[in-house]
Amino acid sequence: SDKNPVKAAAAKAVDALRGDGPEDGVPGKPGAEPPTLAEPTEAREPLPPKPDQGAPATGTATGRPTGAPPTARAQSGAYLTTSTGTRLYDTDHSLKAGPRGPVLLQDHHLREKITHFDHERIPERVVHARGAGAHGVFVGYGTASNVSRAALFGKDVETPVFVRFSTVLGSRGSMDTARDTRGFATKFYTSEGVWDLVANNIPVFFIQDGIKFPDVIHAGKPHPDREIPQAQSAHDTFWDFVTLHTEATHHTLWNMSDRGIPRSYRMMEGFGVHTFRLVNAEGATTLVKFHWKPKLGVHSQTWEEAQITGGVDPDFHRRDLYDAIESGAYPQWELGIQVFPDTPEQTFEGIDLLDPTKIVPEELAPVQPIGLLTLNANPTNFFAETEQVAFHVGHLVPGIDVTDDPLLAARLFSYVDTQLSRLGGPNFNQIPINRTHAPVNDMLRDGFHQHAVHTGTAPYKPNSLDGGCPFFAGADTAAFVETPVEVPAARKVREAPASYDDHFSQPRLFWQSMTPIEREHIVHAYTFELGKCYEQAIKERALQTLANIDPVLCERVAEGLGLPAPAPSVPLADVTPSPALSQVGGVWPPDGRMIGIVADDTTDLDDVRTVRRTILDAGMVPLVIAPSGGKLDAGGDPVTVQRTFATARSVEFDAVLVAGVPGPGSDALGARDAKTDDAAPVAATDPRVLLLLSEAFRHGKALGGWAGAETVLEAAGIPTGAPGVVTGDSGATVLEQVSALLGKHRVWDRFTPQV
Ligand code: HDE
Fold first, then answer.
1. Is residue 217 within 6 Å of ligand 1 at its C-beta?
2. Mind telling me where the 3'-histidyl-3-tyrosine (His-Tyr) cross-link is (predicted)?
3. 535 and 676 inside one domain
4. What is the per-residue pLDDT across 433-474, written as a single tens digit (0 to 9) for each?
5. 283 occurs within a structural domain
6. Residues 6+ apart with CB under 8 A from 74
7. How confident is the model over 282-287, as a mean pLDDT?
8. pLDDT at 555
């Protein structure tokens, strides 16, 4: 046992406690010497608390420095202690009556350790359980100050934020790339209190009234008998609900479009969904819809990519967000508003602003930028921050108010209620990540997990004992005053307005706004999802809803299902397409894009070095893929390998390059082993590389190769001269063209859509 250093240290500590010899006995025994315990190291100060605490310093996937100062990766402090600070000398052995004897109940450390472990889990969110978060800052442009008095919109006002992105249906451990809606919830720690903008990446919702939320979620979640399928909408209960309940058609169509499978959280829009009411300093009101616009554009995976990613990297979006922030490619979004006059009808161009299944096309009401969000720090601890953050649509600040959207009403109730069971009591706003940065002077007292030590004896109002403190603020001293809107005289009813009956005109508007390739993806998505349903009646009802969107959509899906296409059961609306809804078109910055570089022992490494450097300088991420790990070329200036043929899969890369092979007699070869002189690239025969390249080609990704790399591309079945396949003499020229292709996200010309 004295060969085991941990045991040896423990034995030494026990000896020290016992004194010099067996006769001296244990401390407390009459005549025993006081124990002498050697100080193994100096105790260190604990880490500083947030917000000063930097993100944990790690290398990026590329080995690029993060810029963050090194931070301790383990517990700080020299000694392990109990939760009450008593130092421990052993945590590997229970206290026993002799080495082979029974464990003693008096072992407090054992009981504390196991008890705490037993209670480590809290309930996951009933929806949006799977998520990833990041810290950042929001800077106002000052452009919204005429419509809202909220301090955070002021010019150059900086507000710290925490953002949590999520999927809706899956459990905490489910894959990131499921076809689903994404949450995009932002907590603004403003000087006037917390404002939560709890948004989604889809601007409409399945239901028009919150009372139906449990229904739509029960239908979407796994079946209650076998609890399958996980994180999927491709099953009978989901399609049963959305086809019986046709107000869900619009949201479902967005889910079946490329919006349902984002490439990255960094490349998603966000929408407040409901119409909100802004109030300015004079008390004038405006109706608005909030939009987040990503600086990198809105991009998606292809369906096959999403499925492969779900297997090879279920944490794809979480990892992407973390890595981008660590490598300094800070994601950014502009917050924008569509502005509508606050009229008694609450409609705009005939669109009911209180109906959360409707959008207002940007061509009718442009999105006006009001501030910039930058995410620049990863959480220090997932549980403490991302898991315990508690958003609430009712966390509002003066200048931002709600409307009578009946979906919003249920949310205003639900978000506190759910935290009571999720976070175990009413004091969740005292958890560090939820704490406001504004002074708190409430009269809420006691309850589970109360952290505040409230002073005073009069937590009630009115009081005279505290001289009446605290006092009320007024509208002029930043009180939140509900807007005194007129409520029309009415009967109590369980009814919706007639305008809520239009379930198909806006889905048709969306379909008509898509480019052919986007339409083809939608056809494939419906065909796949409905193909996974067993009930014939559900498929037939789904085809009816599709016929009411567009006959071509219906016919193509019907063909895939092997069923007849029904005729529309409603008149097809005459709509004007909204090009802003399409994701295809436009050129976007390639920041943070991942470029794989296939290389092996035959590769000219000088070119690889130049290409890597150019990629890094352009703010993208180069990953060298080689037959095995470690370094390529032991001599001189070796190139580090980030992925091996075994660990690289196409879904990780936005573009793949095949590095050149120097010809016989090349200078680059001179420095290396002559045996590589006439060797064919290993990559040309390795099936994993050929799969990597053929998948990347199939998914419309830019491909490049230079100086002999054509052999490898050809071996992968990639036709020379195909769109987006760039070959040339040097890495630099090839990379230039590949970067230009990346600005469009995919090589769209490679597809020939049939819709
Ligand atoms: Fe939510 N929603 N929701 N929701 N929602 C929750 O709150 C709810 C809706 C959204 O990252 C829950 O803390 C009802 C629309 C996001 O922590 C819960 C209704 C939109 C998140 C809840 C809706 C959202 C949630 C679960 C219909 C987009 C994740 C855990 C009336 C505008 C927040 C929690 C995070 C989370 C209720 C509809 C967005 C149960 C009753 C519409 C982004 O309170």
1. no
2. 392-415
3. no
4. 999 999 999 999 999 999 888 888 899 999 998 888 899 999
5. yes
6. none
7. 97
8. 98
Within-domain flag for 344: yes
- Which of residues 434, 455, 470 is at a domain's end? 434
| CATH number of the domain enclosing 677 | 3.40.50.880
* ipTM for the assembly: 0.97
Distance separating alpha carbons of residues 323 and 321, to the nearest angstrom:
6
Of 109, 128, 135, 299, which one is the catalytic site residue? 128
- State yes or no: is 317 an active-site residue: no
pLDDT of residue 467: 84
What is the rounded average pLDDT of the residues 497-501?
96
Asked if residue 521 lies in contact with residue 557, where contact means CB atoms within 8 angstroms, the answer is: no
Residue 1 clears pLDDT 60, i.e. is over it: no
Q: Which of 434, 457, 483 is the last residue of a domain?
A: 434
Residues 632 and 513 in one domain: no
Identify the domain containing residue 622 by its residue range.
594-750
Q: Is the CB of 289 under 6 A from ligand 1?
A: no
pLDDT band of residue 105 (cuts 50, 70, 90) is very high
**Which ligand 1 atom lies nearest to the CA of residue 185?**
43
Q: For residues 184 and 199, is the Cβ–Cβ distance under 8 A?
A: yes
The finding on whether 408 has its CB within 6 A of some atom of ligand 1 is no
The answer as to whether 512 is a domain residue is yes
- Cis-peptide into 484, omega within 30 deg: no
Same structural domain, 379 and 346: yes
State pTM to two decimals.
0.90
Name the H helices within 5-78.
5-18
For residue 290, the SS3 value is strand
What's the one-letter identity of residue 623? L
pLDDT band, residue 677 (cuts 50/70/90): very low
Structural domain count, the chain: 3
164 annotated ligand binder = yes
Atom index in ligand 1 nearest the CA of residue 417 equals 44
Q: Which of 109, 135, 200, 235 is catalytic?
A: 200
DSSP 221: S
**672 and 651 within one domain:** yes
The answer on pLDDT for 551 being more than 70 is: yes
Per-residue exposure over 472-485, b if at least 16 CB sit within 10 Å of its own CB, e if not: eeeeeebeeeeeee
Residues 187 and 242 in one domain: yes
**Same-domain status, 374 and 278:** yes
| Per-residue pLDDT at 30 exceeds 80 | no
Distance in Å from the first CA to the final CA of the chain: 73
Based on the domain organization, do 543 and 613 belong to the same domain? Answer: no
Sign of the C-alpha dihedral, residues 538, 541, 546, 547? Answer: positive
Q: Tell which atom from ligand 1 comes closest to the C-alpha of 213.
A: 27
Sign of the CA dihedral running 22, 25, 31, 36: positive
Q: Tell me: do 137 and 258 sit in the same domain.
A: yes
The mean per-residue pLDDT over the stretch 397-411 comes to: 97
Distance CA(567)–CA(226), nearest Å, equals 37
| Cα–Cα dist 731/727, whole Å | 9
- On whether residue 34 sits in a domain, the answer given is no
CATH number of domain containing 324: 2.40.180.10
Q: With contact defined as beta carbons under 8 Å apart, do 461 and 442 qualify?
A: no
